[in-house]
Amino acid sequence: MLPFQSSYRAHEMLSTQVAEATIRAMRRVGRGPVTGLPLAFSITTGDNVDNTQYNELRWQIDLLDGKRIVPDSGDPTKYEGVSDQAVYDVRYWHPDGPPPGQAADLPTANFGFPRMPGLLDACRRPFHARGIGMPWMSVFGNHDGLLQGNVPANPLVSPVTTGNTKIYDLPPNTDIVTLAGWLLKGDPRGLQTLFGGPTRPVTADPNRRPLSRMETIAEHFNSTGKPHGHGYSAWNLATGNAYYTFTKGRVRGIALDTVNPFGGAEGSIDETQLAWLTQKLKAGSRHYLDESGRVVRGGKHDRLFVIFSHHTIDSMDNDAGTGRVLGPQVRDLLLRFPNVVLWVNGHTHRNQVIAHKRKKSAKAPGGFWEVNTASHIDWPQQARTVELVDNRDGTLSIFATMVDHAGPTSYGKNPKSPLDLASLSRELGANDWQDRGPFPAGQDGRRGLIEDRNVELLVPAPFRF
Description:
The protein is an alpha/beta fold. The protein has 13 helices and 19 strands. The strands form seven sheets. Strands 7-8-12-14-16-15 form a six-stranded mixed beta sheet, with no helix packed on it. It has a three-stranded antiparallel beta sheet with strand order 17-18-19. A two-stranded parallel sheet has the order 1-4.
């Protein structure tokens, strides 16, 4: 529960290898599976890091740019975390097995997790990333902007993340509901309780420092990849706003920042961003619908709009703070603009495709599609290609195709390479005992329904191309 969901995964020490395997898979694909055209760009839909940390953000940028990756922190000669034997806790998976005389950990004893001596060294081994090999952009997610994706930044946290002690449990008899309320409200008792839990020694590392939204934006300019700033511009640097637009031919991409700075894992936007979004939509639509459903004239040129965000419409229900705009209001705004055909997002770690139809009484038929893609950290560790096609018959097709990462189906007895380690991560993710259904009929866990994966989605063409 809040604020601790997504706080631990047995395979999280393999995250950089999974990202590398995903990047290699996208490079192998190279072209749209339907059109055969070169992929125009790649975009990550948020939660590019786990805990707003500088070292995590550098891994993401350097992986996409094709740099040398050192997936480690603190002491470069040893793993320091909950999976080693320095402090043995049976609730965590320990691939080296238990210390002499101790019982097996619960993931091994109850769920068949393997013994893999040497894994904690293999996962830290440096490697040279392949690089995405195309323009790439990022969207801001709750884990990019909030501590553990839930809690606003606090100056008391930085000494803990960069220091020489690691908290690995809550104090005895902690009331988790009360603690969650304190943390989400910024009550000092929340951090005091967290910091009062049992700790273990680790090696201090200033690269684990938390980043502000402004610092995260600025770091995207420290990159050899294209485009410069990866969607962010001088305006973002000046204002600290993490939303932006970009153009590919007749398509205008709009990247929203749906993170609520007041805290909470779910999303929303503020009224300023809503006004900005409305202005961008009007400027790229020669005609649209006003609030009463009448057709009105907009800008001089038509653009085809694709919206990108971290949160889904349904998960934009976080009204913490003041002046927050929730998902249904944003959806209703988009439905007034026939040029909007697609909203691409993440957050739920689940493949899902949803149709948002305009009212039958509206003078412009159709609506837009919402396409959500599973994450790279949880099973099934997939990405997705999206192609927009003018059918020349008054309709557009949106082809969405799933892409498995490049990790092989078998990782062998002693996985060491990034791809073999990614393969192991996928298997462990599928066996996550914290995420075991029951799932709705027809669904394969986070893979979703068949209709949520490889699909052709039709919309009326809003203008002639």
